[in-house]
Design goal:
This protein is of the alpha/beta class and 282 residues long. It has helices at residues 13-29, 53-58, 76-88, 100-104, 121-130, 145-148, 172-187, 203-213, 252-267, and strands spanning 37-40, 47-49, 96-98, 113-117, 138-141, 160-164, 192-199, 221-227, 240-246, 274-280.
Length: 282
């Protein structure tokens, strides 16, 4: 359970999709003055070095965010996300990549709060170091985010964005996501929840979006996925990823209709590159 390190995959195509959408959601939340909480159930190390250690081993960022930086034709909807990456790399060279907490932190306002769960002790220490000076604004907890989240729902502000993106190294994570979300919705049905999942050969991966659609208490949802290649013949590896958003903003479908074809063109690795977008809005 503690073997997964996101640093191996930092900045890859899945991070591009996840963090671009995350930034879109936070910017939408910021349109109202009322404060909100950002809760991350699997926060990772917060920020990742790309020129050493885990990230350098497979250099997945080169086929992800590395393909976007420097392009002149980037849709304006992608620019806020890419600015966060550039702001971490003021030398102009791509050396650092912001994980979800470090994508969220610059967008949060004075009265907004972050609650970050990370069970891996090494990553938790790195995450804590990143937010040492944040005080009560950002609290890092070394515990299982699937269950720990219940202590914060509903938040005092009655506004929250919750990111749930486990590594799915354990097959039971798929079932646990559904169980955790049922409880989250029971406690706080009006929150915005974002579930990330990998696109794999496995049945659990393929079935998860439809199972999420059938969760009780859901009236509004959006599902977007990005395939960058055909599935491998040997059945191994991740050929894409998806996000399932519960209670999405009404503006998100139009944004994704514009941006997803661009991501397919730029991040696609073969003629299997494609995207899926479906939504049920009130």
């Amino acid at each position: 359970m503690l073997s997964y390190r996101h640093a191996f995959h930092a900045g890859n195509h899945a991070d591009v999709l996840k963090h671009f959408v995350l930034v879109q959601l936070l910017e939408y939340f910021n349109q109202k003055d009322k404060p909100y909480w950002y809760i991350d159930t699997h926060a990772g190390a917060g920020c990742y070095s790309l020129d050493e250690g885990f990230a350098r081993k497979n250099a997945e960022f080169e086929e992800g965010v590395g393909r976007l930086l420097g392009r002149k034709d980037v849709p304006k909807e992608l620019r806020s996300y890419l600015k966060l990456v550039r702001d971490l790399n003021d030398s102009g060279k791509l050396r650092l990549y912001p994980g979800s907490p470090c994508c969220a932190a610059p967008l949060l306002r004075d009265d907004d709060r972050m609650r970050l769960f990370e069970l891996h002790p090494s990553d938790r220490r790195l995450l804590q170091k990143t937010f040492d000076d944040a005080g009560s604004k950002a609290i890092v907890l070394e515990q299982d985010g699937f269950t720990g989240i219940n202590a914060f729902l509903p938040p005092p502000t009655r506004r929250a964005l919750v990111l749930i993106d486990p590594p799915y190294e354990i097959k039971t994570d798929y079932r646990t996501v559904l169980t955790a979300l049922k409880e989250c919705l029971r406690r706080f049905a009006t929150g915005t929840y974002v579930v990330w999942y990998p696109k794999l050969h496995s049945m659990q991966s393929r079935e998860l979006p439809d199972k999420l659609k059938r969760l009780p208490m859901i009236t509004s949802w959006l599902h977007v996925s990005l395939d960058v290649s055909k599935p491998a013949d040997d059945g191994f590896g991740m050929h894409g990823s998806g996000l399932f958003v519960i209670n999405p903003p009404w503006t998100l479908p139009a944004t994704l209709k514009k941006v997803m074809p661009y991501l397919v063109t730029v991040l696609g690795q073969d003629d299997g590159a494609t995207f899926t977008l479906e939504a049920q809005m009130p």
